[in-house]
Prior knowledge:
It is a single chain. It is built from 10 helices and 16 strands. The chain is α+β, with helices and mostly antiparallel strands. The protein has 3 domains: about 1-125, SH3 type barrels, CATH 2.30.30; about 130-240, 2-Layer Sandwich (Nucleotidyltransferase, domain 5); about 255-345, CATH 3.30.1330.30. The strands form 3 sheets. It has a 7-stranded antiparallel sheet. A hairpin with a 2-residue loop joins β8 and β9. The model has no long low-confidence stretch (mean pLDDT about 90).
Amino acid sequence: MKVVEEELDKGSLELLPENLDDLWHLYHVIREGDLVFALEKRRVKDERAETIRRDKGERRPVYIGVRVKDVAFDRYSNRLRIKGIIEHGPESGSHHTINVTPGKRIKVVKEEGWSDKDLERIEEAEASRPPVLLVSVDAGEGVLGLVRDYGLDVVGRVKHNVPGKSGGDRRAEMMEFFHRLADEIERVVEEHDVEHVVVGGPGFVKSDFASFLREERGLDAVVEDTGSSGEAGLIEMIKRGAVERAVEEARIAEEVKHLEEVFKRIGKGEDTVAYGKEECLRAAEIGAVEVLLVADELFRRAMVEGDEELLKAVEYAERTGADVLIVSTEHEWGERLKELGGVAALLRFALPT
């Protein structure tokens, strides 16, 4: 995410989302009542046109401001749909949907100002993340590339002679190749603080190698199908959105890890877990919260409706150094969190009775 222009005294931020992850961040900070400006194509009638037929107008780029009524995140079409009423620009009062995709600049105006929580989310999106490691693998050949802000950086290659399918030593040589490639991956991960690994390739070798990485080296990797190997395979992975998926899956994995612990403690009857707004607020007030998990739907509704109980729980948890995670309800564990009232907490110590 790039912050193009900042006028916080006017409640305004001009933002440029760069990937699917940035759209997810915007989904959480744009709410009903906000004013969003963007360059859109609208039909503009030529009032000077002298014609018998009614002028339906030509679609032209116009800068409009829409008062937000609803925001929907569509991860399958890589866009954010912002629905509302035009307040600035042609056809004021008309309904309009701004489709935000990576690379589309928008300005978001919050008339009551940006909250610290929302600004932190923008700062998180803007901050430089650890690079993603892509590994293109085929029988006997592996190429490693780091995806950085400035592009793709090839940082390693491994070649090993693996016999054909009829070769007697094929399995042994394939294992030797896997070990050598895994050694190179571990070197790059350590040197560059890599958090996300994607393994891709045109055949079955990529899946076998990803399993090897997990079972033998304890490294999890996202698996991506490509039609090419080598550097061409790395570029293909980028074009297919593998980097964005790896980052998103890592975030979901963190959410799931904490939610599994919540349900584990509940199942064992432990007293270092809380759920429901009232209990979580009580825990947050006395600094007992270690991790606070809030369903995204509940958090968005709380921000729009001013749910003081939930918002105070979030505020107190942050003040006392707790990790606050806004959990996606688009996966099974997020739905299970909703069954607990949409909010749960892992506690540092039990609540006093």
